[in-house]
Input
Amino acid sequence: MRNNALKPYLTTAWAGQCFLYEEETDSTNLMAKRLAKEGAAHGTLVCAARQSAGRGRRGRTWISEENGNIYMSLLLRPDMEPSHAPMMTLIMAYSVAKAVEQVCKVKTGIKWPNDILNGTKKICGILTEMGMDKGMISYVVIGVGINTGQMEIPEELKDKAFSLDIGKEQKEELMAVCMNLFEENYETFAGCGSLKFLKEEYETRLVNRGKTVCVLEPGNEYRGRALGITEKGELLVEKETGEIVEVYSGEVSVRGVYGYV
Ligand code: BTN
Output
């Protein structure tokens, strides 16, 4: 991929305008964090063909062979409270879901907070990391892994993962459209400080909605019915006692009672 590969499809002022591509890196999130410390600009996008130390949520590994999958990370320098970082992850999930629909004509669902699915199978995972300085956000890195390549999904993942069947050019278009939609949504969010503008559309894709979920918080585990999201991006869960709680995405994992969704 060339460093100007996304240009033909980009309509942004900043997202992806500075684009760096490597054949191999440890993790595009780590690469973006290093660049952040060197002063890289808001909107810098990094991408690699393979990652030797791809990272997933909750300390997991993200297998990142060179098989045509997308491994990319966007660097942001938001002037916002640290508590707003999870909202940016939801904005990315929503933007990627819409981009996949537009470019690949594949219907998408979202498993709160930020897995993109086709049916019950995962297409994309998102890992957001943040750097702080004196209690304020210094940078946010949003890492996005999209299955676009593995035509041969390993047997053990067959009923959990889905790969979009697209070629090189469509892949570049997909990355650019993710940036176009993300920038538009991020600007709306930065203007109002709330996710009210996407709540309804996010909820129509929310695969957990109306389902019984198991909320796994560090040191606390409970079941309830997922009702939707709040304007701050928390998941609304009605516990078996009837109490309605707002689940903040940070370290939480939500599972279906009978499986992943
Ligand atoms: C998850 O679902 O657990 C999140 C996976 C995030 C994977 C992406 S691939 C690009 C970026 N670099 C990483 O090391 N991780 C993210």
Observations:
- The first strand starts at residue 19 and ends at 25.
- The chain has a mean pLDDT of 92.
- DSSP finds four helices and twelve strands in the chain.
- The first helix runs from residue 28 to 37.
